[in-house]
Amino acid sequence: MKRFSLFLLSLFMLAILAACSKSEKDVASPQGMYAGILPCADCPGIKTAITFDQDGSVVETRLYENTDGASLSQGGTWKMDKGIVTVTFPFDTQYFIVKSADAIEMTDKDGKRSETLSEQYTLKKVAPKVASDFAGRYRLAGDRMLDGSGETLTILGNAQNGVTVTFSADGVEEGCTFNGQGKIVNDQVEIPLQTVNPDLKSTLVIRSTGPDSMNVFTSKANDKNDLGLFCTNGKTLAGDYVKAK
User: Which pLDDT tens digit goes with each residue over 20-58?
Assistant: First the structure.
C-alpha cells in the first residue's frame, strides 16, 4: 500500500512538472509591432511603438506628447526567459510580459505588473504602416497654398517598402531642395542625413499626423537647424504638410 501511495505521488508530481513545462511553452514570444501611450511624469503621455523581430532585434520609437515634436528611435536586442521579455538598449533596459496574443505589458525586472496602472502600461499589437500609406504629393501648410506655389514634399514607395523623399520649391525662386532614400520605422519615415550630406549626423523624420497630412522634423530637437541647410532665404524642410488636391 505504501509503495502504491508513493507511486501515485510520483505520478502527481510528474503531472505538475509537465503542466508547468507546457505552460512555459504555451507563452508565445512577442512578434511584430506594438503601440500605445505610456504614462509620463511631466507630459500627457509618451506615444510608444516597439517592433520585435524574430532574429532577436528590436526597435522602439517614442514621442513625448505636447513637446517639441521630436520622435526618437533606438535599436536593441530582446530575449524571453521564464515569461519575461527583456529588451536591452544601449542606455536602457525594459521588461515586458506577453499579456495576450495581441498585447504586451511593461513590468519591472521580476515581471511584476503595476497594481493600479496595468492598462496604461499595455501596448497593443497593430499592423505597421507601409510605403503606400505615405506615398503622395504634399504642400507646406500656411502661406502660398492658395496660389499653388510653395514648398512641396513628394514621397514615392519602392519595392523594398522603403521610400524616396523629395522636397522642391514650386513657383518660387528660392526654397528647399532635397532628395533622399528612407525606410519606415515604427510608422514613421526616417532618413539619416549623413546619406545626403556626410557632415551631418542627424535624422530627418516624417510622421503621419492625419489621413492627408505629414509632419517633418528631426529625431532630436537639437538637430532641427540641420533641416535649414537644404534651403535658402532662411527656410527649412521642417513643418506640417498637407496632401495636394
Answer: 444 445 568 999 999 999 999 889 999 999 999 999 999
Q: What are the cell numbers at 64?
A: 513625448
Distance from C-alpha of 205 to C-alpha of 190, rounded to nearest angstrom = 5
**pLDDT computed for residue 172 by the predictor:** 63
| Residue 117 dihedral angles phi and psi, to the nearest 5° | -125, 30
Count of CB atoms situated within 10 Å of the CB of 34: 23
pLDDT score recorded for residue 22: 40
Under a CB-based contact definition with an 8 Å cutoff, are residues 206 and 182 in contact?
yes
Q: List helix spans (H) across the chain.
A: 2-26, 131-134
Provide the phi-psi class of 150: left if phi over 0, else alpha when psi is between -120 and 50, else beta: left
HSE (side-chain half, CA atoms, 13 Å) at 73: 23
Closest CA to 32 of 97, 95, 125: 125
Which carries the bigger pLDDT value, residue 28 or residue 188?
A: 188
The number of residues making up the chain comes to 245
The alpha carbon of residue 100 and the mean position of all alpha carbons in its chain are separated, in whole angstroms, by 20
Sign of CA dihedral 223, 224, 229, 233: negative
- DSSP classification of residue 220: S
Backbone angles phi, psi at 106, to 5 degrees: -75, 135
pTM for the model = 0.83
Grid coordinates in use for 29?
A: 514570444
Half-sphere exposure of 241 (CA within 13 A, CB side): 29
Q: How far apart are CA 65 and CA 11, in angstroms?
A: 56
Q: What is the mean pLDDT of the chain?
A: 87
